[in-house]
What we know:
Elements: E1 8-13, H1 20-36, E2 39-44, H2 47-50, E3 63-66, E4 69-73, E5 85-89, H3 96-102, E6 107-111, H4 119-123, E7 127-128, E8 135-138, H5 155-166, E9 173-177, H6 185-194, E10 199-204, H7 209-215, E11 226-229, E12 232-237, H8 242-251, E13 254-258, H9 261-269, E14 273-276, H10 284-296, H11 305-317, H12 322-346, H13 352-362
Parallel strand pairs: 1-2, 1-5, 2-4, 5-6, 6-8, 9-10, 9-13, 10-12, 13-14
Antiparallel strand pairs: 3-4, 7-8, 11-12
Helix pairs in contact: 5-8, 6-7, 6-12, 8-9, 10-11, 11-12
2'-deoxy-thymidine-beta-L-rhamnose is lined by residues 16-21, 23, 53, 113, 178, 204, 206, 239-242, 245, 258-262, 278.
Amino acid sequence: MSHHKANRWDVFCRIVDNFGDIGVCWRLSQQLACEYHLQVRLFIDDLAAAIKIIPALNCELNSQIINHVEILTWQSAITIQPADVALETFSCELPADYLAAMQGNTVWVNLEYLSAESWVADFHARSSNNTKPARHFFFPGFTEATGGLIREADIFQNNQLTAKNKEVETGVLKVSLFCYPHAPVSYLLNAMAESNQPVDCYVPNSSILPAIADFFNLNTVETGSKLSTKNLTLHVLPFLSQADYDKLLVSCDINFVRGEDSWIRAIWAGKPFIWQPYLQTENTHITKLNAFLDLFYAEYKTDAKAAIYNAHSAWSTDDITTEIWQSYLQALPVTKPYTLNKASELATQTDLASKLVIFLQKL
Ligand code: TRH
């Protein structure tokens, strides 16, 4: 087996919509640079969009170094000497000139979307020889037979320390809310308002603010607003840095998360969470949702399991009734230790960056 020298990595990120693409690419690039001391260049097609996740970014520059990662515009890739590894993300397609310049020296890997479905293990680490050079497929996942989950060194342990320091019983349930605008937001807020327990709901600024304004009969809501009705108090936060968002997740009792990256952050926060998958055609997202629930809650043995499935299914399909929400809350004393335990179990698996580095060394 030949051992490739793989110190220089080029990561390619095309921002399709939302923050998942750049959220994952930025997190992973920093980890490869800071924890593995690799030389990482991150090519981004839309710096103006990326600034949301990388606030230090200067959109005027073709090249800049932030936290040990060199960030370049997409156009820069046209004239550049390819690195040892070209990491395409989410099948974004490498720039044609870059691809032509790769010749035999660059290993080409595509980082796929995360899914808990069982087929992932079979497809992980396969290669296609239809292209020159060959294209390798790296599938993240929840079992050792897959490419693993993005997890920075000590993040889970550090989160647990933060959680311990923050623990104060106030009798108020803390919920964070990050979801797609088509989620049944008003049903959820209504269920929280009508529930028999006071709720503090924290909403980082996102595309659901119009739905929140609607619920409170307002034209608009702004960052910093505090809105109350019955048992619900809603706090509109700014869009947080990735690190501050992690802290929010750790400090809440329940986290609503979505897509790809916030989903995994919720797991490392170790707190009960409700995940909304990215909407896909033919209900593919519901298949993904159920595969995840079956995997994550496999050892959840009580009758309350239905409450978790019902809450997820309602959140991803139509409405979330007061009854469904109340049942989810009733199950919380069981869900809480279960989630922490499951998260710590997942945190013992080899993480995605490690697996990627090992994969490249072995190719
Ligand atoms: O934004 P998303 O919906 O991203 C999606 C998914 O990745 C989906 O699979 C993909 O097809 C689509 O993009 C193109 O959700 P996600 O993945 O959770 O990404 C959000 C990122 O934003 C994540 O890195 C966390 C970060 N974030 C903050 O930094 N601050 C915040 O306040 C919030 C709410 C999120």
